[in-house]
Design goal:
Layout (H helix, E strand, L loop, with lengths): L19 H20 L4 H16 L11 H9 L2 H4 L9 H15 L15 H9 L1 H9 L8 H15 L13 H9 E4 L1 H7 L12 E5 L7 H13 L5 E5 L12 H13 L2 H15 L3 E4 L15 H9 L2 E5 H9 L10 H4 L7 E6 L10 H9 L12 E6 L1
Parallel strand pairs: 1-7, 2-3, 2-5, 3-4, 5-6
Antiparallel strand pairs: 6-7
Helix pairs in contact: 1-2, 1-5, 2-5, 6-12, 8-11, 11-13, 12-13
Bound molecules: 1-O-phosphono-beta-D-fructofuranose.
1-O-phosphono-beta-D-fructofuranose (F1X) binds next to helix 1 and helix 15.
Length: about 400
């Protein structure tokens, strides 16, 4: 447990006008609803439901799940705190909870769980596919051909950084030593425990203690998931891992979070790309077909709660892995707890509850931060860059072995 008792560290809420969390609830969520209304020709019933959610976001309260919700889902939300938060303003409950619940309500409004024709239709799919089809994705995949010229270690580093910066959703496979980018990127890393990560996953023949399993808890689809898949494929190819479990969301979440369908779309994109990208894709395809790689969509992946509350079955899965790598900002908030931690609170202490080694690969897109040295914190605060916590210009690789 951290030296500071966790309960004494304030939980982040969206109740402070002008703060980032407040702007997400007051501006981002309504914008998402409007966008969904534009992209799909929903009929009057669905549009009314979306308008009702818009009104609720402005001045409504959390409401219990609708009467026709699946019973298992109701039970889950009961476990996840619905009875405590129903009737309270979106702004007065933990921000993490309010956001997670918003996506559940949005899916209700578009009929995602209903019996009608909109059942299972991902309201964010058009945007996800557009990103996969964008010319930038072609450029990024073509850049993979250049990785052959690098040493194995440099290739590993490049692919790790591709996955890391993919979380900013403007991925570049920054080839080590390829120019100005590399220096800027290094300076933008506020913590870099990558040596500790590689000590857990040494290459084949370098004293590997036994079969290594990587759990990769993915974040966004499209241009983040593609480099995540490349990294997994590379680690398999290098013999650094024998198996991988890719955790994705069971339903559309936080606009661009990856679902099983998105994994298939990204994999097909790789396989069809030709060149080195296709070789990475083919290796992953083979590993999926023979079971070395599996895809999981655990309900808790969409829970509005920190991982410290994870259920026993998920805990057992993470406990069995050599290391679990959590991607992205939301997973970081859930891993360390969505609280106003003093930035120098040790990462190892706030993740001590995690049942096995754990790593975070994240660009900074919300206020939560732990594990900084006092010098780094001082440099960031003194940099004049007011939004270093939320702008996505900084990133971290933190590992608890
Ligand atoms: O998990 P991701 O994709 O890196 O980031 C999710 C995010 O954009 O969503 C939240 C705002 O809605 C913030 O926590 C965070 O910035």
């Amino acid at each position: 447990m951290p030296d500071i008792p966790t309960e004494s560290v304030p939980v982040i809420r969206g109740d402070e006008p002008g703060s980032f969390p407040h702007s997400v609830l007051a501006e981002r969520h309504p914008a998402i609803i409007r966008q969904v209304k534009e992209v799909f020709p929903h009929g009057p019933e669905r549009r009314r439901a979306l308008d009702a959610l818009l009104r609720s976001c402005a001045d409504g309260v959390i409401e219990p799940l609708p009467a026709d919700a699946d019973a298992r889902d109701r039970d889950r939300w009961a476990d996840w705190g619905m009875s405590e938060y129903a009737g309270r303003s979106w702004y007065d409950v933990p921000w993490l909870w309010a956001e997670g619940h918003f996506y559940r309500r949005l899916l209700d409004a578009v009929g995602y769980f209903g019996p009608g024709p909109w059942r299972g239709v991902d309201p964010f799919r058009p945007a996800k596919l557009a990103e996969l089809d964008a010319p930038e994705t072609d450029e990024e995949l073509a850049a993979l051909d250049g990785l052959d010229a690098l040493s194995a270690d440099e290739r590993t580093r490049s692919l790790l950084h591709g996955s890391l910066w993919g979380n900013r959703a403007d991925l570049g496979f920054r080839l080590s030593g390829s120019g100005g980018d590399a220096g800027g990127e290094a300076a933008a890393l506020v913590a870099d425990d990558s040596d500790a990560l590689w000590s857990l996953l040494p290459p084949a023949g370098a004293g590997t203690p036994g079969p290594a399993t990587l759990c990769l808890v993915a974040d966004n689809a499209g241009r983040e998931l593609v480099p995540d898949l490349l990294l997994v494929s590379h680690l398999l190819g290098e013999g650094r891992i024998d198996r991988a479990v890719l955790h994705v969301k069971p339903y559309p979440y936080y606009v661009s979070d990856a679902t099983p369908t998105d994994v298939l779309d990204a994999l097909r994109r790789l396989v069809a790309a030709g060149g080195a990208a296709a070789a990475y894709g083919d290796r992953l395809w083979a590993a999926l077909t023979d079971g070395r790689v599996t895809v999981r969509a655990h309900p808790f992946s969409c829970a509005p709660l920190p991982y410290s509350d994870m259920p026993a079955d998920l805990r057992a899965e993470f406990a069995a892995a050599t290391v679990t790598v959590l991607k992205g900002d939301l997973n970081y908030r859930r891993l360390v707890g969505d609280r106003r931690w003093p930035p120098t609170t040790p990462f190892a202490e706030v993740t001590a509850y995690f049942p096995a080694p754990v790593a975070a690969l994240r660009t900074l897109k919300s206020d939560v931060i732990t594990g900084l040295t006092a010098d780094t914190e001082q440099a960031l605060e003194g940099s004049g860059e007011r939004r270093w916590r939320t702008s996505g210009t900084h990133a971290l690789i933190q590992v608890r072995t």
